[in-house]
Design goal:
- It is an enzyme of class 2 (transferase).
- It catalyses: [protein]-L-isoaspartate + S-adenosyl-L-methionine = [protein]-L-isoaspartate alpha-methyl ester + S-adenosyl-L-homocysteine.
- InterPro entries: PCMT, SAM-dependent_MTases_sf.
- This protein is an alpha/beta fold.
- The chain has one domain: Vaccinia Virus protein VP39 (Rossmann fold), CATH 3.40.50.
- Helix content is 28%, strand content 27%.
- The protein is built from 6 helices and 9 strands; from the N terminus they run ααββαβαβαββαβββ.
- The strands form 2 sheets. A 7-stranded mixed β-sheet has the order 5-4-3-6-7-8-9.
- β7 and β8 form a beta hairpin.
- The radius of gyration is 16 Å and the shape is globular.
- The mean pLDDT is 94.
- It binds S-adenosyl-L-homocysteine (SAH).
- S-adenosyl-L-homocysteine binds next to β2, α4 and β4.
Length: 216
């Protein structure tokens, strides 16, 4: 893929589109420049990897739209020393970007197949600070809590209680909330000393957060 003559130009257009849609944090843009989305989109849709559109991945799931990945990453305000939890590994694209920005990423998916394919890509990109788990992520990961940052990339009706409980004081969580088959609202939750502060960021559309483990 990288040897194609038009690769550099496609990448430039990809980054330009991200900036136009409001992804302005230079660290986020740099991470998105380094992690080639083409590697995370296989088969039929590979050609469209640099378009600003969500695309199908195995197990009936989707890799998010790049501008949404950029805006969510930016909203999470990740620092280099942070311990980050991601719910919904999917293709692994979002986790790979987070891994360049923080100390360690724990990423959970309910589909074993997605997790093992993502692990192969993390090795390909030499990302050694990602821990993967096959589990129902709505319970979070109590044994590694509390987290500085939590990103949920599947829609819940409300921010899951266990995840709120596993956020550090001063920590931030970004999560799409709303009915699974409708437009949802992306919200940012900040844990304060005495409670939570909620910010609505934008409308989004994510696959639902589903209970239990997947079949594959
Ligand atoms: N972040 C991904 C896109 C996620 S798509 C990427 O960068 O490609 C949403 C993912 O959430 C799917 O892979 C789905 O299997 C997963 N998911 C849904 N409910 C879940 C749950 N309860 N626990 C863990 N993963 C879940």
């Amino acid at each position: 893929m990288t040897d194609e003559p038009d690769f550099a130009e496609r990448k430039m257009r990809f980054l330009f589109a991200l900036r136009q849609r409001g992804v302005t944090d230079p660290r986020v843009l740099e991470a998105m420049e380094r992690i080639d989305r083409g590697e995370f989109v296989r088969g039929h849709f590979e050609d469209r990897a640099y378009e600003d559109t969500p695309l199908p991945i195995p197990c009936g799931q989707t890799i998010s739209q790049p501008s949404v990945v950029g805006l969510m990453t930016q909203a999470l305000q990740v620092g280099p020393r942070d311990k980050v939890l991601e719910i919904g590994t999917g293709s692994g694209y979002q986790a790979a970007i987070l891994a360049l920005l923080c100390r360690r990423v724990y990423t959970i998916d309910r589909h074993r197949r997605l997790v093992s394919e993502a692990e192969a890509l993390f090795r390909h990109f030499d990302l050694t600070n990602i821990t993967t788990l096959v589990a129902d992520g709505s319970h979070g990961l109590p044994e590694q809590a509390p987290f500085d940052r939590i990103m949920v990339t599947a829609a819940a009706e409300d921010p899951p209680g266990p995840l709120l409980a596993q956020l550090k004081i001063g920590g931030i969580m970004v999560v799409p909330v709303g009915q699974s088959d409708a437009v949802q609202t992306l919200i940012r939750v900040r844990r304060e000393e005495h409670g939570f502060e909620y910010d609505e960021l934008r409308q989004v559309r994510f696959v639902p957060l589903v209970e239990g483990l997947g079949q594959t």
